[in-house]
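For reproducibility, we list the full input for the guanosine-5'-diphosphate complex.
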Amino acid sequence: MHIRQPIVAVLGHVDSGKTSLLDRIRGTGVQGREAGGITQHIGASFLPTETIKEMCGPLYKKLEQSENKVPGLLVIDTPGHEVFTNLRSRGGSAADIAILVVDVNRGFQPQTNESLKILQSRKVPFVVALNKCDQISGWRKSETKFISQAIKEQDASIQADLDQKVYDVVGTLSILGYKSEAFYRVEDFKSEIAIVPISARSGVGIPELLSVLVGLTQQYLQKRLNQDEKEPRGIILEVKDEVGLGQTANVILIDGIIKKENSIVVAKRDGVIVTKPKALLLPKPLDEMRDPRDKFKPVPQVEAAAGFKIASPDLEGVLPGSTLYVASNDEEIAKYTELIESEMKSVFVDTETN
Ligand code: GDP
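The corresponding predicted structure, in tokenized form, follows.
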């Protein structure tokens, strides 16, 4: 079985700390001295297992016993639920799993509920990152990056306070139909949502958060992540003009491999586009960049899961959120064209009846 890395999205209320968490995850990866470090994709960052292992230390041991290990985590750089709401195809999702960020002192807020509804409708599993623990009144700063250890170092009253805040979230989630629990008390990760207290500012709890994500995806998302016999498929995140390249699309490749000589089949406002990409592009590593405008590097192929860019003059009118299909012969082109046309018809019928 060839398991790809899961695609992770970060959602939550404004100011809950989504951007800070993403920066912290990326920053930790950048500082990782050992093999790998973080790789920048287009619209996403790849955190290889080696880096996560280094961050998690002894925590990681258990995860290594899994038969089907994920090669890392691909984290979508844009926080917020827009990544989900503009999806054209119904039911699908670019993300395999999500981090729902909740401010520990504020609890659930309007956009937390909104995010949750979206995850529910797209059937995306999630973990709750209970952020800003360092802001709990009386919280003692400690050296450890592990939240389980940091909690032990707090006064009993602070521990009780955190427990209460965790239970507030458990209570809210329970009203919404979810069973949840602090991650160190979860018995069954399949039926209970894990709540991981963290501080995006100090970095405490990030190792546990990443371990829970790796553990969950390795154990429960194998079928989705297994690449054997999966047709290549992606989702268009954004369509934009780039200096020197013209029309481009930022794509998250969810399954399979796309090669430069393949044709892409994708919906546009008023029909289907079939075209061969002019180039497949990845970000140029900093040390290869001679000019700040010289940001991208052409590659012969891209393998899922990945964030990459397609340059093609034919992308005019392509809508963000559309599914991108990859065809290697005429038969496949015909199959995907028909599929998109029937999807467009059903969306049309839906809008008419709603
Ligand atoms: P977003 O709107 O969800 O992306 O939230 P941001 O990441 O922009 O954070 C909002 C504010 O909260 C900023 O001023 C951050 O510095 C602050 N913040 C984020 N995470 C933490 C944290 O863990 N601890 C503290 N004390 N402040 C935080």
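Residues 330-353 form the longest helix (24 residues). The chain has nine helices and 18 strands. Both points were considered when choosing residues for closer inspection.
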